[in-house]
Write a structure and sequence with these properties.
single chain, two-stranded antiparallel ribbon, alpha/beta, four-stranded parallel sheet
Length: 147
């Protein structure tokens, strides 16, 4: 009888992937990116280990929000613990100032809320335009299709 083998940190290979967000719905993009960051597509995946890869998302300003989410979706955050500190910008306001935060928020919501999840957040790099400073890692394209 075979026992379960847990992946060792030295055995895990972390690759780099590039995703072009042009015309892709934010939900489809974020599920594919979250699965890649967690390493769920790998045969050696374990829920307690960091088996995932790094993901670079370019053209974040061209991601698509389907339906009426552009005007209706609200992102809530607190600036302090005091009353009156709730900020609730709409999706179109966030897209105007920081379009990369739309993608980050969707992906981070799909990652585990634990110590490992906070470590996995560092594997996501989101850029507004088509350029990114990670050419030295030789990232491969990751295909995410829209609608």
């Amino acid at each position: 009888m075979k026992s379960t083998v847990s992946p060792k940190p030295a055995e895990i290979e972390h690759r780099w992937w590039v995703v072009d967000a042009t015309g892709v719905p934010v939900g489809r993009l974020s599920t594919a990116v979250a699965r890649t960051i967690q390493g769920k597509g790998k045969a050696i995946w374990a829920p307690h280990a960091d088996c995932g890869d790094f993901v670079i998302v370019v053209n974040a300003e061209k991601v698509v929000l389907t339906g009426a989410k552009e005007r209706a979706k609200t992102y809530y955050r607190h600036t302090t613990q005091k009353p009156g500190s709730l900020k609730s910008p709409r999706a179109f306001e966030i897209r105007e100032k920081h379009p990369e935060r739309l993608v980050e928020s969707a992906v981070f919501g799909m990652l585990p809320k634990s110590r490992l999840g906070r470590k996995l957040r560092k594997k996501l790099k989101v850029y507004v335009g088509p350029e990114h400073p990670h050419q030295a890692q030789k990232p491969a394209p990751l295909a995410v299709t829209g609608a």
